[in-house]
């Protein structure tokens, strides 16, 4: 996308936020820009009137002229001061509005992306970079830089008009004077930016190393595996590599700034000599004062103008990342118009379902076919990496099968309205979230619109066994969980899992999918939870991924997956009779619970 489009988008965003403020900012910027030229004229007039008064031998008839110029200088200074304050105010308010709007848009974008964007290393990297670099202040900076560019340009043009009206060659020299030092500065800025841009991946690695040594999440392993020194060493090595490059660049910058800056000084001095000669010719002493002031203004504005161009370029690249993020395609997975059935009669069927993760070659599921009859509980078992969670992701439509079909009541699942389908699914994944929020949210998020309904939250907690944990907390359902915020209560792994399970039960959905929901819960509590779950949700159709066979055996049907293929299915008794893979795994686990000599 070209920069013109960027600019139009930013202008539109700002305009939509506050058209009056944008207009006011533009007007104020133009007004602020011409102040230096006016002040230049006034300085020249002030010196000239005073000089004329002295030449005339006293204030006398020149008194009123001196007073008038004095009052004008005062008025312009007050005006310039007030304009400056107003400019700053408008700029800050627009920045605040823009940061808020962009921050919100970035979050919204995050919620609209597909799981695939988060799970593929390539797109995740892109997404994270865009999220990290995309702040509203970058956009605002681009806007401010552009306005700043316009302001300096107007200042230089208006000051030039005054200078050229006095003396052509002095004007040319004064305007040339800032160029050499600004070029040196620009070159350095561009080089530094290129280097930093190329360091993006290394910077993230540094950030990660710091993260590992400074968060509660990694503290235990870092301390007990004694990784601290290793991590600090890796950090130091990387920073030293940066330092070497930066030092070389800074040295070269100093040399070039020294040489080019000298050239700027020489041109300014030349301009001053010319100005003195010209004043001696014209006798207009006021202009000499004006030239002296102009050298300062042009040096500052010219420098800002040229360096501002480099900043503009740099910010434009960052802003491109943000717009790239905004333009990423959303929600490729779409639903149809079909309403979700009032009651499930047939259930769900996986028909020859195959799947390969995007950007990979391996077929993770290979023509898997089975049914999940309405009102039944089906368990999925299989070794790590067999494809169980992938099946859950397909059923919940986080991914689309690359082959075959999933049918709900005999109709392809993609024909159902996606939002409605998801509303009718109660799901908990093995990597569930431990929300650092009150218990009410942790459970109520399962059905956000009933979050305030304590009776309902309590029923869900009772079903998962989380109620006994909540009873011990001082604020009950309003108690804060986790350690990140004040008065938070940290739970054990199993307790967190019961809370997460309550979240899935909160929804009272006709289809419940539990992906290893009880891995951290002790066997006794687990059996109890499932018995209760089956009695509460006996009409729901559920899919249960589990490793513990004591849980699995309560299912109406068990599906055994191996290397992405369905290898066996049946009830616990049927599979045991079959004496195949399930029986082998069951016996293996059962043997683990037996004393060695019995
Ligand atoms: N996002 C992904 N991109 C590419 N491959 C993936 C992705 N997620 C999982 N896989 C691969 O798919 C295969 C099946 O993974 P899946 O998570 O479905 O296994 P699982 O049976 O649930 O295992 P576990 O019991 O360990 O949870 C594995 O080989 C895994 O490496």
Automatic annotation (TrEMBL):
Chain ranges of the ABC transporter domain: 348-588
Residue span, ABC transmembrane type-1 domain: 23-301
GO cellular component: plasma membrane
Keywords associated with the record: ATP-binding, Cell inner membrane, Cell membrane, Membrane, Nucleotide-binding, Transmembrane, Transmembrane helix, Transport
Principal place of residence: membrane
Subcellular location: Cell inner membrane
Official protein name in the record: ATP-binding cassette subfamily B protein
Species: Crossiella cryophila
């Amino acid at each position: 996308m070209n920069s013109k489009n960027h600019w139009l988008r930013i202008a539109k965003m700002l305009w939509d936020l506050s058209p009056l403020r944008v207009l006011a900012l533009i007007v104020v910027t133009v007004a602020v820009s011409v102040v230096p030229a006016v002040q230049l004229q006034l300085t020249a007039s002030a010196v000239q009137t005073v000089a004329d008064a002295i030449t005339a031998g006293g204030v006398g008839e020149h008194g009123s002229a001196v007073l008038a110029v004095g009052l004008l200088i005062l008025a312009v200074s007050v005006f310039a001061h007030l304009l400056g304050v107003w400019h700053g105010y408008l700029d800050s308010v627009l920045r605040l509005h823009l940061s808020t709007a962009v921050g919100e848009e970035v979050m919204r974008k995050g919620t609209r992306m597909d799981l695939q964007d988060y799970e593929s290393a390539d797109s995740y990297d892109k997404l994270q970079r865009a999220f990290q670099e995309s702040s509203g202040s970058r956009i605002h900076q681009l806007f401010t830089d552009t306005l700043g560019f316009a302001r300096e340009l107007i200042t230089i043009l208006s000051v030039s008009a005054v200078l050229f009206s006095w003396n052509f060659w002095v004007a040319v020299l004064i305007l040339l004077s800032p160029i050499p030092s600004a070029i040196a500065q620009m070159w350095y800025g561009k080089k530094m930016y290129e280097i930093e841009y190329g360091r993006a991946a290394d910077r993230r690695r540094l950030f990660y190393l710091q993260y590992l040594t400074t968060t509660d999440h990694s503290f235990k392993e870092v301390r007990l595996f004694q990784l601290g020194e290793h991590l600090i060493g890796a950090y130091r090595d990387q920073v030293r590599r940066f330092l070497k490059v930066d030092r070389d660049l800074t040295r070269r910058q100093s040399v070039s700034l020294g040489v080019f800056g000298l050239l700027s000084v020489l041109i300014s001095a030349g301009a001053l000599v010319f100005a003195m000669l010209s004043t001696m010719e014209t006798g207009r002493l006021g202009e000499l004062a004006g030239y002296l002031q102009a050298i300062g203004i042009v040096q500052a504005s010219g420098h800002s103008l040229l360096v501002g161009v480099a900043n503009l370029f740099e910010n434009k690249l960052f802003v491109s990342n943000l717009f790239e993020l905004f333009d990423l395609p959303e929600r490729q997975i779409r639903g149809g118009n079909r309403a979700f059935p009032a009651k499930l009669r047939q259930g769900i069927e996986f028909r020859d379902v195959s799947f390969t993760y995007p950007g990979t070659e391996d077929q993770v599921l290979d023509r898997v076919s089975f049914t999940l009859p309405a009102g039944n509980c089906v368990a999925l078992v299989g070794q790590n990496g067999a494809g169980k969670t992938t099946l859950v992701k397909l059923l919940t439509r986080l991914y689309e099968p690359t082959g075959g079909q999933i049918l709900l009541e005999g109709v392809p699942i993609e024909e159902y309205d996606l939002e409605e389908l998801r509303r009718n699914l109660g799901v908990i994944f093995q990597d569930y979230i431990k929300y650092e929020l009150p218990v009410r949210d942790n459970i109520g998020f399962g059905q956000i619109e009933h979050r305030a309904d304590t009776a309902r939250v309590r029923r869900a907690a009772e079903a998962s066994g989380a109620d006994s944990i909540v009873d011990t907390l001082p604020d009950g359902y309003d108690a804060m969980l986790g350690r990140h915020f004040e008065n938070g209560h940290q739970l054990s792994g199993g307790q967190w899992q019961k809370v997460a399970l309550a979240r899935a039960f909160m929804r009272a959905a006709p289809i419940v999918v539990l992906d290893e929901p009880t891995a951290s819960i002790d066997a006794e509590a687990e059996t109890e939870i499932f018995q209760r779950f089956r009695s509460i949700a006996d009409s729901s159709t559920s899919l249960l991924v589990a490793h513990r066979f004591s849980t699995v055996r309560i299912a109406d049907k068990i599906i055994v997956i191996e290397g992405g293929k369905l290898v066996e299915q049946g009830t616990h008794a049927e599979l045991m009779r079959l004496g195949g893979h399930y029986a082998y795994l069951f016996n293996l686990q059962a043997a683990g619970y037996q004393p060695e000599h019995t």
